[in-house]
Amino acid sequence: MTRLIDGKKISASEVEQLAVDTRQFIAESSVTPGLAVVLVGDDPASQVYVRNKVKQATAAGFNSTEHRLPEETGQAQLNALVEQLNSDPSVHGILVQLPLPAQLSEPEIIRLIAPEKDVDGFHPQNVGALAAGNAELIPCTPMGCMIMLRQTLGDLSGKHAVVVGRSNIVGKPMAALLLQANCTVTIVHSRSQDIEAICRQADILVAAVGRPEMIRGSWVKPGATVIDVGINAVESGGRRRLVGDVAFNEVSEVAGAITPVPGGVGPMTIACLMKNTLTAARQQISV
Ligand code: NDP
User: Fold this and answer.
1) Which of 51, 78, 186, 264 is the Cys-Cys partner for 259 at CB 3.0 to 4.6 Å?
2) Which molecular function terms from Gene Ontology are attached (predicted)?
3) Whole-angstrom Cα distance, residue 119 to residue 287?
4) Residue 75 has what pLDDT?
């Protein structure tokens, strides 16, 4: 019987603990952690993500501010807002919701956010620290995957982890964290050959591709732990539903443990954003 890795439950307990840690931090420092979330434009999915992030931040006991800018915002206007947040001592974490409208440069904004307030962990300084194995602010989705893996498997040392996807926000930081946890790590991507055979060698298989149900049951080693990062909206029978990058029904016949979509990696990502915000506040206040 496969074990379901319940991201909702794990994230709820992470947020509960975080609220306790936050109360203690506030009592010791008299500072309330502040998270500023910036949303440019009207993308419906981004609006939902931002709403959830602000809601969770408030539940964790943070001051949370939402900054909405219109779709046609120019680079100078967005840069000015980020610079203002950088120099605001009540803001400890800044998140600019991606993707940005096409006229705006994501790399420019990511570089502009003060590294100590970069709760997404995307600033080059934080990316470098992650590669060197000493990062404090770690990209939220891979951090959430690691928490779930440690709760499921305990020590990850020596396990063969295969990461499908090499994006800067998921695949690459995921591989770096698995390496840091002493896994043997293989990354596969759209130019890799014989992906199925490589996946079949995985004790830990992380799918971050963005292709609905690409990973089939026959790609998975019996007993493997499967983490499905993918969130894909598909139409079936006239209804829209979310599926992952893993064919859940097939793979759960083979895997030892698996995350569902929705209710797996997604809730963990938001919980880890809150963890990063408290970490950022701690570092800035030095409690
Ligand atoms: P990207 O599109 O940035 O990256 C996808 C990666 O998959 C690329 O490295 C690409 O390879 C690789 N890829 C594409 N097609 C194939 C293929 N046929 N075989 C092997 N590799 C392939 O996506 P993200 O990393 O941003 O996101 C991945 C998924 O995770 C999406 O569904 C996204 O919605 C979801 N997501 C979920 C989050 C959560 O909180 N649960 C957070 C972030 C993302 P190449 O580099 O060669 O192009």
Assistant:
1) 264
2) methenyltetrahydrofolate cyclohydrolase activity; methylenetetrahydrofolate dehydrogenase (NADP+) activity
3) 18
4) 98
d(CA 48, CA 62): 19
pLDDT mean across residues, the chain: 96
* SS3 state of residue 99: coil
Q: What is the pLDDT of residue 51?
A: 92
Topology of the domain comprising 30-114: Rossmann fold (3.40.50)
From the candidates 56, 117, 118, 120, which is the catalytic residue? 120
Ligand 1 near 151 CB (within 6 A): no
pTM of the entire predicted model: 0.97
120 is catalytic: yes
In the structure, what pLDDT confidence band is assigned to residue 286 with cuts at 50, 70 and 90?
confident
- Over residues 263-269, the mean pLDDT reads 96
User: Which atom of ligand 1 lies nearest, measured to the CA of 261?
Assistant: 41
Centre of ligand 1 to C-alpha 206, Å, is: 11
pLDDT in tens, 82-109: 999 999 999 999 999 999 999 999 999 9
Superfamily, domain 140-266: NAD(P)-binding Rossmann-like Domain (3.40.50.720)
Please provide the distance, in angstroms rounded to a whole number, between the alpha carbons at the two ends of the chain: 45
What per-residue confidence (pLDDT) applies to 237? 87
Per DSSP, helices labelled H in 121-247 are 124-132, 140-153, 171-180, 195-199
- Examine domains 30-114 and 140-266 and report if their fold is the same: yes
Distance (Å, rounded) from C-alpha 186 to C-alpha 162? 5
199 lines ligand 1 (CB under 6 A): no
Instruction: Flag whether pLDDT at 287 surpasses 60.
Output: no
State which ligand 1 atom lies nearest to the alpha carbon of 209. 7
Catalytic hit among 53, 117, 159, 172: 53
> Is residue 195 within 6 Å of ligand 1 at its C-beta?
yes
Write down the ipTM of this complex.
Answer: 0.99
At residue 210's C-alpha, the angle toward residues 204 and 215, to 5°, is 45
